[in-house]
Queue: 2 jobs
Job 1
Amino acid sequence: MRRYEFNMTSGKIWTVLLAFTWPLLLENLLQLLYYTADSVIVGRYVGVSALAAVSATTHICGMLVRFFNGTATGAGVVISRAFGANDRERLSESIKTSLILTLTGCVLLTLFGVSLSRFFLERMSTPPDVIGEADLYLKIYFGGISGLLFYNIGGAILRAMGDTRRPLFFLIVCSVLNIVMDIAFVKIGWGIAGVAIATIAAQALSACLVIYTVIKSAGLSGKWRIDREIARMILKIGLPFGVQMAVVAFSNVFVQGYINVFGTAYIAGWGVYMKLDQYMMLPTQSMGQAVTVFTGQNLGAEKRGRAISGTWTALAMMLVISSGIASTLCVFAPVFASLFSPDVRVIEYGSFFIRMCTPVAVICCFNQILSGYLRGDGNSRMPMIITLCTHVFFRQIYLAVMTRIIPGNVYVVGFGYPAGWILCAVMMTVYYFVWQARRS
């Protein structure tokens, strides 16, 4: 086994999962800091309207980027199975195919994002004092989106082979660079445009580092081409997850639209909660990614029992950890909210949203861990269907009904998130047992 590769088919399950997850968690944390730094810096040094502008772009960025990242999960599953089976030829062809598909995705996502940014902001009822800066931020962001996409696919490839350390190191360097450039560009008067430029420049550097590492580590040589059979498997597994993540983010655009009608302070407060919610979800999402790789490697090595045991071990650990994080956020909600803005209204509204939603977010452990197992087992269709039904259709029905029964109440709108999480956890757990019964 090569130096940075990590075989998950042997050893104590909980130690293997934690050893794989902690650098992945730090990597995801640092990547999230890219966007948190944008919010904190513009909120404290540019103003509330600029913070609202960045907040208003969150779900649009997420919708398009998550589609690609979800699809990239298919590459991770295919590569992890080839790695678990020690099939070096298939591993090489899988990596080449993944990188070529990524290049195509970069072109499409750049064109789509730049051309439709204003359209989406208008459909979200973005206030006039916010929409101009939000549109500028989005156009710059999507103009340089290739760096983020190539970093994410490169990181997914390395993680599928058990390497979480080098992507983490690259991201540490680039995260520090991003924050330094954020502050410098704001100080010289570039405002929200400077924050966007700093983000895409740091992402471009991280992409160059990780892709160079992939090519060197895998020893890629010979003809570069798309292997049709591998591409079909990547898309079969990844597209449903990509559609799931994109449509969920798209539904969040509509939720943001409901929030936007309450004004700038509420938009900023909701944006503060959404940033902190991402931190709340991060450990579970990282463990879900680890479970997908763990499952893929162990099924590739024909160890289904170990894959199942790993799923329940991961779930137990995440329930404990998520409960601790939720408790901390609720107790210190005003302190965390004040990091983003000194405005009293933003702190008040952000704190209320935090205390209303984060305790229920613990239940998302079931959604992330069980769907991670199913994707590692090659089944991403039903997790997609369940998530769409609960996070999209149910949530939209809830908002349409409840805003008519109790009109003009922003907190009724915000509770649409916890309501969808609860239903999703129940359906995902039931389906997991149905799937296992079929496979036994």
Note: DSSP finds 16 helices and no strands in the chain.
Job 2
Amino acid sequence: MVAFLNSEIVYLEWGFFDKESNTLLRPIIVGMVANAVVFYSQVYYIIPRRFKKGMWVYSFESLGSCLLITLLVSAYDILEIDRMSITDVSKFGSDEYTQIVFFNFALRGVWSLLAMAYRFPIDWFRKERQKEQLIKERLQSELDFLKAQINPHFLFNGINSIYHLINKDGDKAKETLLQFSGLLRYQIYDCQSAQISLYKEINYLKAYINMEAVRKDGDVIIDFSLNDSLKVLLEDQSITPKIAPLLITPFLENAFKFVSQSDEHKSNWIKVNMKLSNEVLTVNIANSHDDQDNSGPREGEGGLGLANVKKRLHLIYADRHALELNRSTNLFEVNLTLAL
């Protein structure tokens, strides 16, 4: 750039300096060095280290550095004018000095503003990325905490089921224990990732329902149905929509826990219906329940699963889910919609 400005095809004047008198090159070099000092000192020192201490501290140091460089460059310009005998410095009046100082200060100010225009967006984007990273880390910590709660909750329900089955039917207790170990293996090894294949989750739900059906020993009528899209999914595992693991299980757990216990077994029922359409999963879980003691899933004891899954849905699917819990005299129903 210096060579270009000093070439024959360009004619420039720089205050008291011009190309014709061959006095332009040195002031241009000094001016560019001064501009670079202002720009890079602002970008890499003053703005990042002083701005966070307050606007007054930043403004004082920024203006002070510009003024100091202005005085140095102005002193050089005056000495250069005197050295090259461009004009008689002794005849300089206040207007000439003011003109040199003002011109240099204005130029340093422009480069200071350019430094701000360059640095502030960088800092803003960096802070936004840091905020996003902190939010992601916080959400991941919450999800890890919620997932850590799933195993103890599942263990509590499973062991409780097997315990009540041991004296009633030892063989079924053994079978249930084997099924329980398979489900636990799935939770420990397959559910460590944030997303899992939907067909694996459905197979887990089917296994869970089979285990509970053994425990209930025909006391509850269970209806588990899938639409054609999900049936194809189970047959062709190359179709791999993903879902966060163990989101549906808490609703099943509560359905089995709070299902009615009528002596007429046909009055005790649980219905699970799942549909997949255009990457949207719809889950309906309904169960009969005894209204005489106002039973049903609640927050608090036995409600850990529901509270947990609500938080996970909010964290993972945010605006991509809809959850509706309906309760009537002898019915509790869950309707969940997920955009996968």
Note: The longest strand covers residues 269-277.
